[in-house]
Design a protein that fits this description.
Helix content is about 40%, strand content about 25%. By secondary structure, the chain is α/β, with parallel strands linked by helices. The chain has one domain: Rossmann fold (3-Layer(aba) Sandwich), CATH 3.40.50.300. The two termini are about 15 Å apart. The C terminus is likely disordered.
């Protein structure tokens, strides 16, 4: 069984936030093998069962042929947005190949999210269960750049993390929880015979 999650977005931090959710999946689903792919290079984040895999794919801006193929064939599609980015409305109106809205991940935002959340929910009609949030965190960004993102996350859950990072992890946990609900839906669907695999 394999479930593929494609991440797409033009804003800086798309890759870092994808990896943070991939590591959260590894913590929450230790039976599954968790892999991440970026620029045609694949990383094994967690060695679980070979017959149960979660594959997180960074599609960048979604403009290459390979990225478009992954986006089309993904089981779950995550559109990474920032309230301050240009052409935000164009991205919020994106639809998946099946016609439904993707899962929106509001990443790298600063300050209070209440007004942003209200706008996205009321003006663009995005349901709360279809909208995740990951605020900007300079310590996580620094750790990711140095290849130590996993250690940063693991230290927090061992009780060694700084208190001022609590907000970041609370939002990360909630976004991961919403994504896990979608994963469970896909998992149940595949268990009833709807499985398909990406061809590499």
């Amino acid at each position: 069984m394999s479930i593929k999650i494609a991440f797409c977005g033009e804003i800086e931090g798309n890759t870092a936030n994808m990896f943070s959710l991939a590591w959260m999946a590894a913590l929450q689903k230790p039976v599954w093998a968790v892999l991440a792919e970026r620029r045609e290079k694949r990383y094994i984040l967690w060695r679980g069962r070979s017959d149960q895999q979660l594959l997180f794919v960074d599609c960048g801006e979604g403009k290459t042929r390979r990225a478009k193929k992954y986006w089309q064939e993904a089981d779950i599609r995550v559109l990474h947005i920032n309230p301050e980015q240009k052409d935000l409305e164009q991205y919020l109106l994106w639809k998946t190949p099946g016609g439904e809205s993707p899962f929106f991940l509001v990443g790298n935002y600063h300050g209070e999210k209440t007004k942003i959340k209200s706008c996205l929910r009321n003006f663009y009609r995005i349901e709360e269960e279809n909208m995740g949030w990951i605020p900007y965190n300079n310590e996580y960004a620094y750790a990711f750049e140095r290849g130590k993102a996993a250690r940063f996350i693991q230290r927090y859950y061992r009780g060694e993390g700084a208190e001022h990072n609590r907000c970041f992890f609370e939002e990360l946990e909630h976004s991961s929880f919403l994504l896990q609900k979608k994963l469970e839906t896909k998992e149940n669907h595949q268990n009833t015979g709807g499985n398909h695999l990406w061809n590499r």
